[in-house]
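User: Show me sequence and structure for the first protein, then do the same for the second.

Assistant: Starting with the first protein.
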Amino acid sequence: MPSLNSSSYSHLNSDDVDFLESENTESEISIQIENVGKRSVSKFVFGHRTRLFIMVLLLFCLTLPQINSITFNFTVICMEDLVENFYTKNLSGTHWMESTTHKSFIFSSTAIGAVIGLIPSVPLIDQLGIRIVLTVSGFLSAIGSLFFPLAVDYNFYAVIVCRILQGLGISIVFTVVGVIPGVWAAENETGTFLAILSCAFQLSMIICMPVSGLLCDSDLGWRSIYYIFGILTLFSYFLFFYFYTDSPRFHRNVSEKELKKIESGKLEILKEGVPYFEICTDLTVLMAWLSVLGGNFGFTILTLYGPTYLKNVLHFDVKETGFATALPFILSALVKFAAGRISDKMEHLSEKQHILSISGGLYQLHRDPFSFFYRIFYAVAFPFRDYYCRPFCDGGTGEDYELVL
């Protein structure tokens, strides 16, 4: 078997070497080495910023499945026609939209789908790559959205299936947000990539809620929301599948100059066994999980029940509900955009100091001359105070609320 230890083969990675060593003749190896070493680069390279186009494309592809998964959270306040149509055809019985239990199952079925999809997602990404796995999940999300208006006219179980499909569509969003910056971002842009891509969660609310409010209150009706976002999801993922590659090295629009910038300072990744037990028992990881759990708890409450609370308890109209629900997430997205860029600039600080500096700075907003901004933050959170605490404060006493806080 010919050996590939020559310095002329130093540009090849270990996978290329293993593949070439499986061939039979040295002449065949030489021909393949030439082909492996060559990159087909297009004349159009986006001004050596193809990675930024990839980032924006991925942001849309991560946002749209999130929108599909939360659309029901808003349209549930606009679906009275289902109950009315039911009673025009039936003299007895009740519609599932009148059952709190049934609606709770519909809310939670998206999370069930997300868990089902999350379990095989990591090994599938290892085997097939993000391009294929994310495209399939996006198509499932689009199918769940496009068929949802038909499912509600069919039966309750068809609705559950559509919601599970929407959950499958968001199952690998967190994984993609964590992986892409390490693959496509330059070393000094990782924080910016991470902040922008993770804004998909906020952008989904910022886009979905006002648009849903306008469409629900228009002649198009609430069904049009599912069709519009479902079609946009299909289009975005067709574009993603066509344009994205799992490595910038194999992308024809990435110039040599940009490739060098992306790969500079990155270490070669070696495949090893995953130490799951050590990860799950590491104190730093546990604290990170606890932090995410707390953050997602508040985010999920706003996402699931914010529109219902504003419409049914505070008696906002449909349009006002859409814009008011999006308001806290606009602020969150702005802070994320700024924090990611600032984090990349503060290279002299550790990750722990990054977090403390940001949280400490926000704490100081209650002091003059920033008390005005503190009042804005308080005003945004104030309408939701009872909703957060009421399930844990049956007595309504100060001691009950103190326990929650």
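Switching to the second protein now.
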Amino acid sequence: GAWHFLLFWEQDTFAGAVPLALLVSRLFAWLPPYRVLMVHVFDRTQSGLVTALMHASLVASQFIIMPAALAGMDLVAWLLAWAGVLWLAVGVVTWWTGGRSAHASEGKRSV
């Protein structure tokens, strides 16, 4: 959510080179799809530990796969591409599950 914004507003980040509106839009481009995926995993597992590990893996993977030399608009483009990959993953998961939650069939009797 919004608390992640502070991580991008520190002095040594690219926030000074990018207008505030673009900074906010690129931040929220990838947070919603990842949250949807985390909610899906929690819905299936009912495990806070698994979703916490999922969040930790996101943070760790950003340090591993994001090129350190990126700055300014190049970094924004990379993060928007990352957001596109996450939205694609949300689409695949939604298609795969038929858009149903893990608990959608509870309360229904099989005949």
